[in-house]
Amino acid sequence: MNGMDSIARLLITMGALILLAGLGLLLMSKLGGEGFRIPGDFVIRRGNFTLYFPLATGLILSLILTVLLNLFLRR
Asked: What global pTM score does this model have?
């Protein structure tokens, strides 16, 4: 497999993942979900300013993705 084949496969895989993420977000919006809000996610509201800092969600997603990538990309 030459370099162009591997780049093409990578782009196709990334496109499929982006498509799945977009479909998931669309489905969540249709079901009335505003996103993931778990304890450890901070929301600060001051007047017309809102800051949403998803600390716990980011840590959990990072852990899940690390485990999955280590399982599937292990050589």
From this structure: 0.51
